[in-house]
Design brief:
Order of helices and strands: EEEEEHEHEHEHEEEEHEH
Distance between the termini: 63 Å
Helix content: 25-40%
Number of strands: 13
Oligomer: single chain
Structural class: alpha/beta
Radius of gyration: 23 Å
Largest sheet: 9 strands, mixed
Shape: globular
Strand content: 25-35%
Number of helices: 6
Length: 274
C-alpha cells in the first residue's frame, strides 16, 4: 500500500510577528517548522503502513530549506520524501499550490501508483484548508475532510471507513480508494522518534523536482500567475486596554469580580439597557 502525505514547512506562529510597516508576516522572526497538522498526517500514514504494509512518501512544495520539514517526516517514520522546488512556484496561493502538487502526484502515480493521500486539516500560516480538497478535485478522487479516526481500510475491496468531525459529533463515512483525507490533530499522538529514525533523518537527502521534471505543466497556473487571490492587508489585533487584575484568595477574587459585574449592570440599566 503506497500512502502519500502532502506536507508544508511553516513559520512557528507562536513566535512570528507582523511587520508594522508592510503589514505582512515577518517570516524571519520565527523558526520554520513542520506544519503541526501535517505531523499527525505523517504519523497516521506510518501507523497504517505498520498494519497494511507498503510505503509512506511525503511530498512538499517550497524553497530548498523545506528539506528540513521532509527530514522531520523521515524522523517520524516516512520512507521517502520529494520536494518540488522552483522559482516558478513562488508566490502561489492555494489554487496554484494544489495545481503544482497535483502535477507532482501525477508523476508519482505513473512511477509507482498511490493508494491513499493524507494532508493536515490546514496549514497554521494560512488556515484555509483548501489545498487538500483542491488536490482531490484535480485528481478526481473523493476528499474526506476533518478526519479524526480511520476506522477501517479494506484493501481487498478498495474501500476505507473514517470518522469525520462535525459540530454535533462525527460522521462515519465510507469511500472508495484511492481518496484523500485531511486529518485533525486528535487522530493520534505523534510518537517519539526512535534513534535509528533520527540518524536516518539527519543524513537523508530528499529528491528535488523542478517544473521541468513534471509533465504537461501549464506555466500560467503556477506561482503568482496562477494565483487569483492576494492578501490585501494584514495587521495584528489591537491589545485590550484597561484590564484589571484581581489578586488574593479565590473567594475574595470572586467577590471582587461580582462587584464589578453588578456595577456594570447598574450602569447599563441606567443607560436604558434591558
Amino acid at each position: 500500500m503506497h500512502i502519500l502525505v502532502c506536507i508544508k514547512q511553516v513559520p512557528d506562529t507562536k513566535i512570528i510577528k507582523v511587520n508594522p510597516k508592510t503589514n505582512t508576516l515577518d517570516r524571519s522572526s520565527a523558526p520554520a517548522i513542520l506544519n503541526p497538522y501535517d505531523a499527525h498526517a505523517v504519523e497516521e500514514a506510518v501507523r497504517l503502513r505498520e498494519v497494511h504494509g507498503g510505503k509512506v512518501t511525503v511530498l512538499s512544495m517550497g524553497p530548498p530549506q523545506a528539506k528540513n520539514a521532509i527530514r522531520k517526516c523521515v524522523e517520524i517514520g516516512a520512507d521517502e520524501g520529494i520536494l518540488i522546488s522552483d522559482r516558478r512556484f513562488a508566490g502561489a496561493d492555494t489554487l496554484a499550490t494544489s495545481y503544482a502538487l497535483y502535477k507532482a502526484i501525477e508523476r508519482i502515480q505513473k512511477l509507482e501508483g498511490v493508494d491513499l493521500i493524507l494532508c493536515g486539516k490546514h496549514a497554521i500560516d494560512g488556515d484555509t484548508g483548501q489545498t487538500g480538497p483542491g488536490i482531490a478535485r484535480r485528481l478526481g478522487i473523493p476528499p474526506l475532510t476533518c478526519v479524526n479516526k480511520v476506522a477501517e481500510v479494506n484493501r481487498k475491496e478498495q474501500r476505507i471507513q473514517v470518522h469525520r468531525k462535525v459540530e454535533e459529533g462525527y460522521e462515519l463515512i465510507e469511500s472508495a480508494l484511492p481518496c484523500l483525507l485531511t486529518v485533525e490533530k486528535e487522530i493520534n499522538e505523534v510518537s517519539y522518534s526512535p534513534l535509528p529514525n533520527m540518524i536516518r533523518a539527519a543524513r537523508y537527502e530528499p529528491s528535488i523536482w523542478t517544473v521541468d521534471d513534471l509533465e504537461d505543466v501549464d506555466i500560467k497556473q503556477l506561482g503568482l500567475k496562477g494565483s487569483p487571490t492576494i492578501v490585501g492587508k494584514m495587521w495584528p489585533p489591537e491589545k485590550s486596554k484597561g484590564a484589571k487584575l484581581f489578586e488574593g484568595e479565590a473567594g475574595q477574587q470572586v467577590k471582587d469580580v461580582m462587584d464589578v459585574m453588578l456595577k456594570e449592570r447598574e450602569l447599563f440599566a441606567g443607560k436604558g439597557g434591558d
